[in-house]
């Protein structure tokens, strides 16, 4: 019998009340079932019309897929351009090697550890400024006051855009990723695309020190980067670095609000914040990514057909007991915090040094300037469990400054 029938099951975290408390723990229940199953009941923009997609639940199997782009392609697997009615790939994420390798080299200078260090002064100033805006109030809704504006402003910095543009991007980001209908998501994709097209045209006329001007000046074998690849690159920078950082921060700051002992550990020794960042990223791996099978194959006993869509919830790899002892426990001194939070293989997150820097600095500035924070009203916390797992809101309180 077809494996898609024998291994079929409905899985929607959005209907699961346990997921609103912790999508990671709720999803980890899947580890009681098969390592690969066929998810039915939800339609994705990238769905190939097969009535569902495969879901891979174990770290080892996800890793095997991510390391093998020849059998598991990421070409158009995320699907933002399809939402905008186009077919350009996100660059480099939706390109397979060897073209992928070419574009990784193009963006590499902007994503080195040295570049992240260079930006860290401005990132710290930004974090401090945001915190100063609400510190005295003794209360804040974390997601809108910090989690979202912080990475968006870092993105604006790289793009050479004014901070005043932030609300536009905030709105588009929310609608693109979590718009209730495909129409809303499509309209956001079109809005972002036309904004980026205008911006590219402006930078062509008047280049600056920003990443778009750099891309426009870049020559591949003497030729400029083609327009569709340029769009894919710019869209990638928007889509890659905003919601991922915001969502990770949301779960991290909620965990700290629930665990004063963890806050104390960081307050007592700021030096453990880099290790804490890695452990938090392991425990709260927010990205769901996708691949297409490039050929018919039997993968760990399951018949996959060419064109099948495969979902990799990286948060499931993080909570896999076969990979990590006590996977739900936050342990800053855990021997191996190696995870798939930033993926692995050719598509390993290009922005990971920047992302780690943003998270580390956010933790340092909060720990230094905000006294012990708690959740004010747990009923106000809502989670989103679409492509990136996230918190919609996180109301925090702390003793106000006298
Ligand atoms: C905590 C924050 C972040 C997380 C968890 C994260 C996660 C990921 C993951 C899982 C992938 C690969 C997906 C796949 O293999 O299909 C990826 C790719 C990528 N990310 Fe990030 N990311 C974060 C922040 C950033 C930032 C700040 C940037 C910078 C703008 C960025 C830029 C990219 C790029 C350019 C790629 C494509 C790499 C390639 O295809 O070669 N990311 N990210």
Automatic annotation (TrEMBL):
Keywords noted in UniProt: Heme, Iron, Metal-binding, Monooxygenase, Oxidoreductase
Domain of life: Bacteria
Matching Pfam families: p450
Keyword Metal-binding recorded: yes
Similarity comment text for this entry: Belongs to the cytochrome P450 family.
Protein name: Cytochrome P450
């Amino acid at each position: 019998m077809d494996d898609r029938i024998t291994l079929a099951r409905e899985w929607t975290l959005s209907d699961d009340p346990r997921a609103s408390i912790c999508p990671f723990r709720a999803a980890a229940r899947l580890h009681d079932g098969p390592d690969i199953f066929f998810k039915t009941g939800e339609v994705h923009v990238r769905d190939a019309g097969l009535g569902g997609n495969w879901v891979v639940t174990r770290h080892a199997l996800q890793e095997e897929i991510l390391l093998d782009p020849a059998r598991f392609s990421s070409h158009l697997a995320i699907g933002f351009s399809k939402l905008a009615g186009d077919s350009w790939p996100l660059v480099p994420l939706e390109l397979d090697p060897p073209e992928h390798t070419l574009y990784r080299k193009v963006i590499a200078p902007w994503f080195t550890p040295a570049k992240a260090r260079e930006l860290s002064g401005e990132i710290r100033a930004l974090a401090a400024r945001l915190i100063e805006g609400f510190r005295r109030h003794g209360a804040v809704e974390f997601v809108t006051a910090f989690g979202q504006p912080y990475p968006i402003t870092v993105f604006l910095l790289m793009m050479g855009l004014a901070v005043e543009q932030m609300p536009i991007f905030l709105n588009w980001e929310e609608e693109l990723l979590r718009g209730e209908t495909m129409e809303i998501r499509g309209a956001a994709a079109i809005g972002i695309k036309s904004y980026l097209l205008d911006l590219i045209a402006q930078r062509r006329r008047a280049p600056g020190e920003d990443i778009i001007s750099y891309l426009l000046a870049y020559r591949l074998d003497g030729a400029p980067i083609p327009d569709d690849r340029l769009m894919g690159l710019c869209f990638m920078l928007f889509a890659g670095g905003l919601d991922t950082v915001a969502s990770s921060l949301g779960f991290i700051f909620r965990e700290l609000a629930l665990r004063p002992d963890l806050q104390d550990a960081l307050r007592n020794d700021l030096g453990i914040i880099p290790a804490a960042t890695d452990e938090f990223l392991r425990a709260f791996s927010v990205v769901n990514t996708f691949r297409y099978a490039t050929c018919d194959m039997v993968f760990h006993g399951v018949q996959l057909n060419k064109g099948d869509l495969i979902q990799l919830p990286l948060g499931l790899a993080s909570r896999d007991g076969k990979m990590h002892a006590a996977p739900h426990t936050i342990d800053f001194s855990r021997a191996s915090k190696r995870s798939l939070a930033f993926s692995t293989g050719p598509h390993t997150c290009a922005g990971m040094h920047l992302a780690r820097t943003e998270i580390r600095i956010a933790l340092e500035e909060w720990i230094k300037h905000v006294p012990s924070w708690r959740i004010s009203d747990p009923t106000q916390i809502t989670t989103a469990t679409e492509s990136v797992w996230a918190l919609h809101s996180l109301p925090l309180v702390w003793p106000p400054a006298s």
